[in-house]
Amino acid sequence: MKKNALFLCCIWAISALSMKAQEIPPLSADSTYGVVQVSVCNVREEGKFTSGMSTQALLGMPVKVRQYTGWYEIQTPDDYTGWVHRMVITPMSKQQYDEWNRAEKIVVTSHYGCTYMKPDRHSQV
Fold first, then answer.
1. Under CATH, what is the fold of the domain 25-125?
2. I need a surface site. Which of 67, 96, 99, 119 has the fewest CB within 10 A?
3. Which DSSP state fits 101?
4. Is pLDDT of 23 > 60?
């Protein structure tokens, strides 16, 4: 009997922890903008990996964040909307977004490039 009670307590604890891990925090009111942080971001019709792709967003593209449900619903500058995984954009406030837009950018047009730790070709890649 004690083994059964212990087993049931363990099952209850595991299920309680997994339910807590699935809680989705609400989208912060000041995080209604974002920037794509991967080279090519698949924008999906629904917030799941098996959903069809509606468009793609590129590294550095500024987006509007419409909602968050574990995935971000975004709107691209050319008015496409869709869902992206939470790891592919950096959400930010309007002020951070405006600062990022005003900041100087580097555009790489070669097929590949290296990033160095210091502004010196002999420093570590």
1. SH3 type barrels. (2.30.30)
2. 119
3. H
4. no
Token pair of 27 as six digits: 């989208």
Cα 68 to chain centroid distance, Å, stands at 10
DSSP for residue 43:
E
Cα 60 to Cα 34, 35, 37, 43, 101, distances in angstroms: 9, 6, 6, 15, 10
> Residue 40, class by beta-carbon neighbours within 10 Å (0-12 exposed, 13-18 middle, 19+ buried)?
exposed
Tell me if 108 sits within 8 A of 46, measured CB to CB: no
Q: What's the pLDDT tens digit per position in 76-98?
A: 999 999 999 999 999 999 999 99
Cβ-based neighbour number of residue 71 at 10 Å: 20
Residues 52-64: pLDDT tens digits? Answer: 999 999 999 999 9
Residue 53 DSSP SS3:
strand
